[in-house]
Design a protein that fits this description.
By secondary structure, this protein is an alpha/beta fold. The protein contains eight helices and 17 strands. Among the domains are: about 110 residues, FAD/NAD(P)-binding domain, CATH 3.50.50.60; about 90 residues, no CATH class. The longest helix has 20 residues. It starts with 6 loop residues before the first helix and ends with a helix. It binds flavin-adenine dinucleotide.
Length: about 350
């Protein structure tokens, strides 16, 4: 097993990778109308929204590279419907609106954001295993139907099928959103603020002072900046995701809690919430390690049936850890003004065949 960085960076072109380090160490506009601090999905989406809404000049600063925080280590699933079983209704509604916005942005952003449509199956012992009631958009599949859709599955389980969810490569989405921003400074950390009255007069950064009309803190965690006295309840939770090498295991769509199939046959599992794990990297025994063990058993069965030993198809499992905010997965909502662009259809990703599902 090797423990390395995220799969997402590998999927980028060299130009896209270079975009993540745009404007290194520089501040193009020290007197912007809007200063956004933080180059994760929230910061980039807010900056792009402000720019598209015509709110004046926008400067974004990011201490590392774009996506250096939780965004670059996220699973990138945009799956509001399964959250019906875990999140309050208002939050699920926001996630649905967010997914619709992602679809809109996919269409209007030049080159797209890399949105991939997908169906989702959640395995459960019986229909009541997921919820007391089954929402309308959930189709219950018995164990025989699941076995037909997901050959080689070690468990004999039914499951809930939900169609029309999506995923992104978060870094690719960041590059697409940031592309239209004129002033992005990576490697620029905000270190202090000067406050006069109820206004932030200036922000000290590692690349100089910035005086902005408005300052947006999109730092993931509450900002730790000299002169800024704020008390926002927050917690750090570590998460993992795991990616295999291209595998012979075929998953027709996202199968929770197994994995999501990627374009090149890799399987992506996660992300997990590893509460209490304060270590910096991937740790044997964590929930992610348990997922590794599960994927191994899945792969073993598949390779045995195909007449190969597990060693013929080694799974090179890469663990990835990142800090994530407290228990809530936030997604940007953005209404851009980009005219004259042709509508693009989102790419069709992994879907569970209708016939088989209905069968
Ligand atoms: C393993 C894992 C899986 C996940 N899976 C999903 C998923 O499938 N779907 C989903 O919707 N969400 C998922 N999430 C959650 C999602 O990643 C986060 O909600 C989201 O990325 C938060 O974005 P953000 O921009 O608020 O924070 P971040 O991405 O953390 O960005 C904050 C940025 O601010 C910068 N910064 C901080 N302080 C300063 C400073 N003083 N000056 C300059 N820059 C600063 C940081 O370097 C960082 O780049 C997952 C998270 C993890 C860890």
């Amino acid at each position: 097993m090797t423990v390395t960085g995220a799969i997402w960076r590998e999927q980028l072109t060299s130009d896209q990778r270079a975009m993540l380090g745009r404007g290194a160490g520089t501040i193009a506009n020290p007197r912007p109308d809007v200063l956004v601090i933080g180059g994760g999905i929230l910061g980039v989406a807010v900056a792009a929204s402000a720019h598209d809404a015509g709110l004046g000049s926008v400067q974004l600063v990011e201490a590392g590279r774009l996506g250096a925080g939780a965004t670059g280590g996220a699973t990138g699933l945009l799956i509001p419907e399964p959250h019906q079983w875990s999140d309050p209704e208002t939050f699920v509604d926001m996630e649905r609106a967010s997914l619709e916005r992602w679809r809109y942005l996919e269409q209007v952003t030049p080159g797209g954001l890399g949105l991939v449509e997908l169906d989702w199956i959640g395995l459960a012992p019986d229909p009541g295993g997921l919820a007391a009631h089954q929402p309308e958009n959930v189709e219950w599949l018995d164990a025989a139907k699941i076995a037909a859709l997901v050959p080689g599955l070690a468990w004999h389980l039914g499951g809930a099928l939900i169609r029309h969810q999506a995923r992104v490569n978060p870094l690719r989405a960041l590059v697409g959103l940031a592309d239209g921003l004129p002033a992005v400074g990576t490697g620029v950390a905000a270190t202090a603020v000067t406050i006069r009255g109820d206004r932030i007069e200036s922000v000290t950064t590692s690349a100089g002072e910035i005086s902005a009309g408005a300052v947006v803190f999109a730092t993931g965690q509450p900002p730790v900046i000299d002169g800024l006295e704020i008390d926002i309840p927050a917690d750090r939770v570590k998460g993992h995701l795991i990616v295999t090498e291209p595998a012979s295991v075929h998953l027709p769509c996202t199968v929770a809690p197994v994995a999501t199939p990627l374009e090149d046959g890799r399987l992506l599992a996660g992300g997990t919430f590893d509460y209490g794990d304060e270590t910096a990297g991937h740790r044997p025994g964590s929930r992610s390690a348990q997922r590794v063990a599960y994927l191994w058993s899945f792969q073993d069965r598949d390779t045995q049936r195909a007449g190969h030993g597990p060693g013929d198809h080694p799974l090179d499992l890469r663990g990835q850890a990142a800090a994530r905010g407290q228990g809530v997965e936030r997604r940007p909502v953005r209404q851009p003004k980009r005219r004259g662009l042709e509508a693009r259809a989102p790419s069709r990703g992994s879907s569970c065949g209708h016939q088989a599902a209905a069968g």
